[in-house]
Amino acid sequence: MAAPENMWQCQTVNCGYIYDPDRGDRKGKIPPGTAFEDLPDDWRCPICRATKKCFRPLAGPGSTQEASCEK
User: Fold this and answer.
1) Quick one: pLDDT band at residue 66, thresholds 50, 70, 90?
2) Any residues with CB less than 8 A from the CB of 28 and at least 6 apart, and which?
3) What is the band of 1 on the pLDDT scale with cuts at 50, 70, 90?
């Protein structure tokens, strides 16, 4: 499992999906080892379909527990 600084969580209501670069996104055909910053701009949350703008890091600069965004 990646360090919390490298893991990103979807901030939309009732989602909370965590992108782990060590696992990638099988549904979105993103191979393991792909950093969140390297995801394609059109990548979306596999659970709620939110854009990358709706994600915040779990720890470090820019992390937050309160963020609102629209799908």
Assistant:
1) very low
2) 43, 44, 46
3) confident
Q: What are phi and psi of 6, to 5 degrees?
A: -100, -5
CA distance 11 to 49: 12
- Amino acid (1-letter code) at residue 5: E
Q: 42 vs 1, 17, 31, 66, CA distance in Å?
A: 25, 17, 16, 23
First to last CA, the chain: 27
Contacts of 31 (CB under 8 A, 6+ apart): 24
For the cut 70, the answer to whether the pLDDT of residue 70 exceeds it is no
Read off the tokens for 38. Answer: 């390297």
Between residues 20 and 1, the one the model is more confident about: 20
